[in-house]
Amino acid sequence: MAETSVRTTPGLMGYAAMSLLTAVFTWGVFFWYFAVRALILGGSCGARYGVACGPGTGWNILFVVVLTPAVCAAVSVLSNEIYGPERRGHEFFRVVLAALPVSALVDLLLYSQDFGFSVWRLVGAVPCLALIVVVTVWTIRTTGLRGAFWLMSPRRIVALGADPAMRGLSTIQNSMFLVSNGLGAVCGLSLARWVSQLVA
């Protein structure tokens, strides 16, 4: 049976809510990344190794332990509960997820002197590349690459059993969602970096 849906015009609250959603998710993902990065750069420490740990080591360990399942749960909720029931696109959290391993790969390649011998840099690049591939394939199969930052293609919407005309958005509306998501991502990333520097 074809899905019926009512066409709605996004309001300012809709754009603000999407921006906030993206900001919170981006903060969680990159705060986790900065905590992991700080632990790697800090190296082995403690009484067992005879090296004193930095002041933020304990906090970073706690953040990694707490945020790892939280980020996984957030991905599931966003994909299945927030966007899943009325999947249209603009699922910018997928762009954020792809940006995470890209950032890690850039760190490995451009700031490699901080990560020891080159063999370890190569070992670290493997999971980064694998995660990029996984997120890309998952996005293509679910929304298409376009659906991560724009309205999904009409062909994909039809495949879901919906009328594309009922889910249409103007170029201005699509652009507003893209700007909202972009601002949310920038704010979330900036906050994550600022908080991680406070912890350090």
Q: Can you describe this structure?
A:
The protein is 68% helix and 0% strand. It is mainly α and 200 residues long. Helix 1 (12-42) runs antiparallel to helix 2 (57-82), helix 1 runs parallel beside helix 6 (171-199) and helix 3 runs antiparallel to helix 4 (118-142). Residues 1-7 have low confidence and may be disordered.
Helical/strand content category: mainly alpha
Q: The biggest beta sheet, please?
A: none
Rg for CA atoms: 20 Å
Dominant shape: elongated
Unreliably modeled segments: 1-7
Distance between the termini: 56 Å
Give the integer mean of the pLDDT values.
Answer: 85
Helix amount:
55-70%
Order of helices and strands: HHHHHH
Q: What portion of residues belong to β-strands?
A: under 5%
Question: How many β strands by DSSP?
Answer: 0
**Helix count, DSSP H or I runs of 4 or more residues:** 6
Fold blueprint:
Elements: H1 12-42, H2 57-82, H3 93-110, H4 118-142, H5 154-159, H6 171-199
Helix pairs in contact: 1-2, 1-3, 1-6, 3-4
